[in-house]
Amino acid sequence: MNSNDQNARAEQREIDASAKWPVLVFLGSALLWLLLGGVFQLAASIQLHNPAFLSDCEWFTHGRLAPAAQNALVYGWGMNSAFAFGLWLMARLSATTLRHGGWLFVAAKFWNLGITLGIGGILAGYSTSFELLEMPRFVTLVLLVAYAIIGVWVVTTFSIRNTESVYASQWYLFGAAFWFPWLYTIAQVMLFRAPARGVLQPVVNAWYVHGLYGLWFVPVALAAIYYFLPKLLGKPVSTYYLAPLAFWWLVISTALAGGSRLIGAPVPVWLPTLGIVAHMMLVLPLVIISMNFLGTLRGQTGAIGGSLSLRFIVLSIAGFLLSSVLGLALSLRGFAAVAQFTLLTGLRDWLAFYACFSTAMFGAAYFFLPRLTGKVWRSSALVQAHFGATVLGTALVLVGQAAAGWQQGHLLNDATVPFIEITKALAGWHAFNSAALGVLLIGHVAFLINFVWIACPFNSQGTPEAQIQNPPVLGLAAKEGHA
Amino acid sequence: MKNGLVLFLGVFATLALSWAGLLLAAHKQIGNLAQFKDPVEETLNPQPLSGLADQGRLVYQDLGCVTCHTQQVRYGENGSDIKRGWGERAGYARDYLRDRSVLIGSSRLGPDLRNVGKRIPEADYFYKLLYAPEATVGGAPIAHGMPAYRFLFEERSTAGRQPSYKAIKLPSSSAPAAGLEVVPTPRAEALVAYLQSLKDTYDYPTERSLNAPAEHPKGGH
Question: pTM of the predicted model, to two decimals?
Fold first, then answer.
């Protein structure tokens, strides 16, 4: 190791030290929401095959529990973990410390306060019933102000960067940092402050939902993949020169694709048509991004087993491709005639959110937590359990929901089948899905326990100066630069 | 891409394009839709919700019915909505002017409700459905996908007083113990009034041609 490398490592340690507490606070709250949201989601899924479950308790009736679960997962786990990862990666890639981190604690407090109030509001009956905007109006400002602090920190960290070049991960993080507040503000204004009339409301809602997944969660996941793939494999991204083209093409097409959720709806027909065209346009960036990722992975498949982060990142790549392909299929009128309004539409969003985004966050956390805390994972059995549960649970949800959704669509389209028969046919699949969600929940518990062990400051395991063990197969310590 | 400003402008332009191209353009096109005055009957359509039904809309919203029920009848070859009897015609944008919050939904774990007031005019059926869903499918306690909403009802003793005229009639399998009656709360009444109000029966002459399939070109190959 020459002195240059040593300097780089010292600088990284300084950056990691500055990011440590904000990241741990965001990730810790994210994991609590992941657990709570997972429990809610499991309970809501059980209600689908056992409608009497909790039905006498007004707070936990399915129509409230299911959105509460979705909001806890999306805003609690998803946003918090994206903040943790985004702040850390932006500081690392911009080669600058995260300054005045105290403000981020304030932001984290208010963000989580807002979500707590919002989810309590949904359960108590103040839901607005607009997808992913169910939280009552009074939490909007709390969330926006808290987000403003976090967004400003990401953007200023980027603008005081000490690097010449700007890497692909930074484009995606920078873009996402701006898109979320704009999407959220516009949706809030057009639905609640100065509500649009009639069917414009579902148009705004579809636009927001599509934007939240496509312009926030997927970009953050792509930032993680672009960062970790070359870093953990120790080789540059292949055909990287096409990445800027893919970035702009992807985000512009995604931004126009929201109408594809409204096929057949009573809205001007050009909206879904534009969505279909935009989805077709997405094929090109998908090909480029696949070339970037799969090209980098080519010939390195043996190395995947050597790094836990890398295994999660590969899972995330698979999730990204699957959710994109399913989104493309759902935008086609012929496929939508069967699949629309079935479990397949939910599966598309779940793939983007869980299989693509959440696995990327797990992979990132397994990378940065030992570096931030200077400790090693205490229980490798729990680590293995988490990964195994994620793979198994994701596969089960994917297979179960896809098969169930397809069957549901065909039964719905056959007007001679009474509706009650469809409900009966799906009951078994719902039970299957509950089992899959249970498997995922076990993984989340395992991760949370390990997180508490590694993050707890009174932990005797390891010392602050502990050596970070790089994946032994790869031994890339020397190559760990900024990007 | 090294220039932060260029990146910012691109990021801004992306969302501005999306907002203007989708939301603003749609608003320009249908933001000014108004009720249609029937030239013969001189009625304004869609007719606004009654006060009670509008309260029921809030109950519908607070209980999250939209989680499993859509409120849209798709046109053309998009599924079998009309064949299932979920509507006599596809929905028009104008139909939705009556609702202060428009919840068209995106999941059909339950049936579509856009014209449920036309399909099922009796309030009794809805009360039974909400109190004991299995009572609506033949009496036997078989599985019904919908949960019961017993918290929308009050079970009270009839001892020493006249039974309420609002008490709902239940088959013996779902009925409460003897000496008790089940009375809907005001929230249940509002919700049922809303469900009964759900019917797009007026066929707008101005819109009738909009959702019809395009005519096949005549002649040629």
Answer: 0.93
